[in-house]
Amino acid sequence: MEAQDNIEQTLWAYIDGICDEQTHDRVAKQIATDALWGERYAELMAFNASLTNGLELEEPSVRFTKNVMDLIGQASVAPSVRAYINPVVIRSIGALLLLSIVVTTLYAFFSAGAGAAIPVQEITIPKAQVHMPDAANFINTNTITVLLCVNVVLGLLFLDTVLRRKARHL
């Protein structure tokens, strides 16, 4: 049975023209000399002719693509992520962050001014081997001014982003 299946596979490859030249020549000789191969070849050729003669290739209608695209257009589109996000929550989080920045900045200004009047206990720190620059040299009015300017610029960038998003939605 396995040999019969192998013969059919080889003959179908021969009929379809998908075998190489060496196999093509070998099968042609087998068909001419062997009665079994010749008989199977005649059966398969008759079956192949009955398939190809009775069937017409169907072509889609001219409006097929248009009809398919219309059906796709009628399907409901999933809502965007913006529909899931509540803008009130986002604004509340932004307001909370802005409030925390303002409160932290105000606290830093007021505690720096009042800190000099409050006596602090002397804490002796052992001398380190590495010479560290004095932090008092770096934290002065210029440093605070620069940090305040950076915060203002970042706030303006945030405001610009929010206003651009609102303008896009209008």
Report a brief summary of the structure.
Helix content is about 70%, strand content about 0%. The chain is mainly alpha-helical and about 170 residues long.
Keywords:
single chain, 170 residues, mainly alpha, 6 helices
General description of the model:
The structure is a single chain. The chain is mainly α. The protein has helices at 2-16, 21-33, 35-54, 64-74, 87-115, 141-169.
Number of strands: 0
Please describe the biggest sheet, giving its number of strands, its sense, and whether it closes into a barrel: none
> Into which percent range does the helicity of residues fall?
55-70%
Q: How many separate domains make up the residues?
A: 3
Proportion of β residues?
under 5%
Shape, per Cα inertia axes: elongated
Q: Rg, please?
A: 43 Å
Mean pLDDT across residues:
81
| Separation, N- and C-terminal Cα atoms | 76 Å
The helix count comes to: 6
Show unreliable segments: none
- Please state the structural category: mainly alpha
- What is the N-to-C order of secondary-structure elements (H for helix, E for strand)? HHHHHH
Present the secondary structure layout.
Layout: H1 2-16, H2 21-33, H3 35-54, H4 64-74, H5 87-115, H6 141-169
Helix pairs in contact: 1-3, 2-3
